[in-house]
Specification:
Layout (H helix, E strand, L loop, with lengths): L1 E4 L2 E3 L6 E5 L2 H14 L6 E8 L10 E8 L16 E5 L5 H8 L7 E4 L3 E2 L11 E2 L6 E4 L7 E12 L6 E14 L12 E6 L11 H8 L3 E3 L3 H15 L3 E4 L2 H16 L24 H6 L4 E4 H8 L7 H9 L18 H24 L2 H12 L3 H5 L3 H15 L10 H6 L38 E6 L2 H8 L10 H9 L21 H20 L6 H19 L3 H4 L8 H13 L6 E3 L2 E5 L5 H18 L5 E7 L12 H21 L9 E4 L14 H11 L10 E4 L16 H17 L7 H8 L3 H18 L3 H4 L2 H4 L6 E4 L6 E4 L3 E2 L6 E2 L17 H21 L2 E3 L7 E2 L6 E2 L2 E2 L9 E3 L3 H15 L14 H19 L8 H4 L8
Helix pairs in contact: 4-5, 8-9, 10-12, 10-17, 14-16, 14-19, 16-17, 21-24, 23-24, 24-25, 28-29, 28-30, 29-30
């Protein structure tokens, strides 16, 4: 521990500063008095000089401290303790392990040279050899020796739920073992040398009469256990005999180990601690969050969870074993529903099939681990970061960054930040989104600092090359380029200001960039080391005739270096991090936002530029030009050409004409609609995959979220539980969600909610295709989508200043109903959307003659009939508006009502059917006004075409004028287009 002396003594009761100066001996004397109070019977101390560069204000960058050391058997001092002669204690909550790793410069698994080890008389572990090092300085790192081969064991088990206790009981367990697994070479083939299986039976079942004979015939290594207790005893005996260094499983912390330990506890199996390497009598309390008990029980063995490792190394829609087997191994996994396992005890072939599935799962787990190179990669990452490999395998990315910086700052004689206490991190909630928590209604804090810049895309149909430019490792490059470090960036003003004022007022405050002549800080140095080492390793990989094992080793090393370097920035902006420095994180993202170009789309570290060129050569020239200009400005910020997008999404961006594209899309969508209606699409294509962001039981609105509903049902059935981070697959059916045969897929939901929105969005920039057409092609009712599309257009127009003025008549009246008049002579329906029809010499008034060629009667001879029909249509539209029908904004919710609900949000009344979206008028006042304007301006107004009015006779002009008066009279009674300014500003009349 390091005690920071005060300049002057402080009265601890009144907190008043006295005039008495403080020396190191004063601090020593005060701690000597405190040691009796905290029962620290023996300690050592000395005066040392240390540097400090972190976030606690009023701590000098370099000064003298009193260093105190005492045995870990004595209690730790409380964090935040202050005295009359010292203002801070650093290192009061530092663990013995951390102190040992830093002081002895141990960086990950390595050979250790232990001087004068002492054999123990009372063993505390299950290991064959046990020795004690008397002091930590007797342990030194022994370098340049390759790691030894290790023993690995992959396990898989099958369980059934006891109907009375609702506990999971183990019925079969399989394990694969390899005694000479090398972590610095390619994985052995096959990845196991031996295996064993053990099978038990549920309490209400019996083994098939010929099961033993069936096992002998198959020559299988199967142990038949009469009870579950016998099965667990056999497994622990095997664990002790094989003594694996690494246990491998899928969701092993979340399910396998928890179930094994629970059943050992319930069945009272002796020597439970053989599952690990420490001899222990009392089992840790099971069922806690974070799998603490399972991690504690396996002390001495590494535990590799392939689910956890896959989440860091690859991207999948789900990380279930079935999905991983498909994605990583390209193999199909066969599963048996838990409720069907008991039925497999009916005869020997079925029970052997269950054992085969258990064994196959253990094999798949081992193969996935080998294919992803989980162990070699974890070893390399741990050697780079300097933490412990067991934590790396658990996916502790923040801890890896922490240890990398701990080693770096410790080597430079800096005092490192203390670990934040759990209570403190709970109070300092993660600063992020500005939204309302659904469960408690409390508003979260606004973003602590501005993040990376994401530009709104310029929507359009780009049928020429689009160039994608990408910054190579943007944030690490910025940290190096501008020398951003704890030791270089001055943050005193920021920290003092934060203390005096509300923290939110300081969110825009950015510290100054360090001087260019300043020596490179520790953080950019560490990042540069990682980047340079990766470049060197990649050069070594390019050597001719390189040994495959060596190539693999280099490849794993460069991946480990890349993963570590790219996550370094995260420790600055992560509020639970030990090296959290908000001003530094803000400075890094601020410099990232400064580098902007005129682009059609851009996010934090990549941009898309419209080249307006169809020549690939020209596009690459432009890309290299931009790359050279940016790299000239910033030495360590390297922008690169990632790829060129040309004619994206098949047909839509093909080189064919627009008409052909539209026709092809129509054919395909009609085909899709017909296949869905006929039920010829495979069931797995209807699966929807959604990830859980928290445990299912923690969601406040469980009933309204299908994936949460499904997750809760799965958990109620027993077996492997679905938890936070898992992906749930489900299919929407017409009937209520329940377990029964013969459920039918809700095809309307999939077409309307899953297919239609995506296709409409992709086709939106293409003229000739809109949401209504897409709905018609898919076989959906287009009326609902027409109303929704009209509403969207109105919303967009309202959002644009002066948008209605900028729109052409064709765009403005696109959704209006056309005027239809039936010819009194032949009965043909004539549709009108303009005053004139035809073009050039063939241009003529639309009412001049009936559209039926053989009829040819002049419709201007029936002005009264047309006027009555027009008046009838106008009254129909007005009646539709005053009917007051409301529809839900969510296209999947077909709720339509005239009753105004009680619940309102700031966007409008909340739909009582789905409770997610808001209700809006089916026929809005704007739609009515546009319809009346369409009749007046487009169909019957000759004033819009004065140059063409010469084509009309005087009688025809009179007819058009009389017909125009009908919508004019209706618009005269409408108050939609008028604003009463006197009424609007009436409230201000009293203010004089």
């Amino acid at each position: 521990m390091y005690f920071l002396p005060r300049e002057y003594k402080v009265n601890t009761k009144t907190e008043e500063v006295t005039d008495t100066p403080v020396g190191i001996m004063d601090v020593y004397q005060e701690f000597n008095d405190l040691s009796e109070k905290f029962r620290i019977m023996k300690f050592k101390s000395k005066k040392v000089e240390k540097s400090y560069a972190f976030e606690i204000p009023d701590v000098s960058t370099q000064c003298e401290y009193l260093e105190v050391r005492y045995s870990a058997e004595f209690p730790a001092l409380p964090s935040g303790l202050k005295g009359a002669t010292f203002s801070h204690i650093f290192g009061s909550n530092t663990s013995s392990l951390e102190h040992f790793l830093l002081s002895r410069k141990i960086k990950g698994p390595c050979w250790l040279d232990i001087k004068t080890p002492q054999l123990v008389s009372q063993p505390v572990s299950w290991c064959k050899v046990e020795a004690v090092a008397l002091r930590s300085d007797l342990v030194t790192v022994f370098r340049d020796l390759s790691p030894p081969p290790i023993t690995i064991m992959s396990i898989s088990l099958k369980t059934i739920q006891n109907p009375k206790t609702h506990h999971n009981e183990i019925v079969s367990l399989a394990a694969l073992v390899h005694y000479q697994f090398h972590v610095d070479k390619a994985s052995p083939q096959p990845p196991y040398q031996t295996h064993f299986c053990v099978v038990s039976k549920p309490a209400d079942c019996i083994f098939p009469y010929d099961f033993k004979d069936a096992v002998k015939k198959r020559n299988g290594k199967v142990e038949i256990a009469a009870t579950e207790r016998t099965l667990l005893g056999f497994f622990l005996a095997k664990m002790h005999k094989i003594d694996p260094d690494v246990l491998v499983g899928h969701d092993i912390f979340g399910f396998d180990l928890e179930v094994i330990l629970q059943r050992i506890n319930v069945c009272k199996v002796p020597h439970w601690s053989k599952i690990g390497r420490l001899r222990r009598a009392n089992m840790p309390k099971l069922g806690g969050r974070g799998a603490f008990a399972e991690k504690s029980a396996t002390c001495g063995r590494l535990v590799c969870d392939v689910e956890m490792s896959a989440k860091e190394l690859i991207r999948c829609k789900s990380y279930h074993l079935t999905e991983l087997a498909t994605q990583v191994l390209k193999m199909e996994r066969v599963t048996v529903p838990q409720e069907n396992i008991k039925n497999l005890y009916s005869d020997s072939p079925h029970l052997l099939y269950l054992l085969e599935l258990t064994w196959t799962d253990a094999k798949l787990i081992l193969q996935i681990m080998c294919e992803l190179n989980v162990l070699p990669l974890a070893l390399q990452i741990t050697n780079i970061a300097g933490n412990v490999m067991s934590r790396t395998l658990m996916g502790g990315r923040a801890e890896r960054n922490e240890f990398l910086l701990l080693h770096a700052f410790h080597d430079k004689n800096y005092i490192v930040p203390d670990k934040p206490s759990f209570k403190k991190t709970q109070l300092e909630t993660v600063e992020g989104e500005d939204d309302v928590d659904a469960g408690k209604g409390k508003r979260k804090k606004k973003a602590a600092y501005a993040g990376g810049l994401v530009l709104d895309p310029k929507v359009g149909f780009y049928d020429k090359f689009v160039l994608l430019l990408d910054f190579n490792s943007l944030y690490p490059s910025i940290i190096q380029e501008f020398n951003i470090c704890f030791t270089t960036v001055q943050r005193e003003a920021y920290n003092k200001g934060k203390k005096k004022n509300n923290e939110e007022e300081w969110s825009d405050e950015i510290p100054e960039i360090p001087d260019k002549d300043l020596e490179m800080g520790i953080l950019p140095k560490e990042i540069r080391k990682l980047v340079e080492r990766r470049k060197q390793v990649k050069q070594l990989m390019k050597q001719q005739d390189i040994n495959p094992d060596l190539y693999l080793q280099y490849d794993i090393r460069q991946k480990a270096l890349k993963l570590t370097a790219n996550s370094m920035y995260g420790c600055l902006g992560f509020s639970f991090s030990r090296f959290y420095a908000k001003p530094l994180a803000a400075l890094v993202t601020h410099k990232g936002r400064e580098m902007n170009l005129e682009v059609i789309y851009g996010d934090t570290d990549s941009i898309m530029i419209n080249t307006n060129s169809r020549s690939l050569e020209e596009v690459y020239k432009l890309g290299n030009k931009v790359k050279a200009e940016v790299n000239k400005l910033y030495k360590l910020l390297e922008i690169d050409i990632d790829g060129v997008f040309n004619y994206v999404i098949g047909q839509i961006l093909s080189d064919q004409s627009r008409d052909v594209i539209v026709e092809n899309i129509q054919k395909h969508l009609v085909e899709v609609g017909e296949k869905v209606a006929a039920g010829t699409i495979p069931l797995n294509q209807y699966e929807i995959n959604k990830a859980l962001t928290k445990d299912p039981q923690d969601y406040p609105d469980k009933k309204s979220l299908p994936h949460v509903h499904v997750a809760l049902w799965i958990n109620s059935q027993g077996g492997r539980r679905v938890k936070s981070g898992d992906t749930v697959s489900y299919i929407i059916c017409k009937e209520q969600l329940q377990k029964q045969e013969g459920l039918s897929v809700d095809t309307q939901y999939y077409l309307a909610q899953q297919v239609h929105p995506v296709v409409s969005r992709i086709c939106d920039p293409i003229e000739g295709i809109d949401g209504v057409l897409v709905a018609t092609w898919l076989g959906l009712d287009p009326s609902h989508f027409r109303a929704h599309q009209q509403y969207q257009r109105e919303e967009e127009a309202d959002g644009m200043l002066g948008a209605p003025v900028q729109l052409t008549d064709e765009e403005r009246y696109k959704d209006c109903e056309r005027f239809t008049f039936t010819c009194p002579q032949c009965g043909t329906d004539n549709v009108y959307d303009s005053v004139f029809e035809g073009a050039g010499l063939k241009l003529e008034p639309s009412l001049l003659r009936c559209c039926h060629v053989s009829c040819g009667s002049q419709l201007t001879d029936y002005p009264v009939n047309i006027s009555n029909k027009l008046l009838h249509d106008i009254r129909r539209h007005i009646k539709t508006y005053y009917s007051g029908w409301l529809v839900c904004e969510d296209q999947a919710c077909h709720n339509r009502t005239r009753r105004l609900p009680i619940a309102f949000s700031r966007h409008g009344p909340i739909c009582p059917a789905c409770t997610r979206a808001t209700l809006r008028p089916e026929y809005s006042e704007k739609a009515l006004y546009n319809q009346l304007c369409f009749y007046r301006s487009t169909v019957f107004s000759i004033h819009h075409s004065l140059d063409r009015a010469k084509l009309l006779s005087r009688d025809s002009i009179d007819v058009y004028r009389r017909l125009k008066e009908v919508p004019d009279n209706a618009l005269a009674t409408s108050g939609y287009s008028e604003i009463n300014l006197a009424k609007l500003f009436q409230a201000f009349s009293s203010l004089k």
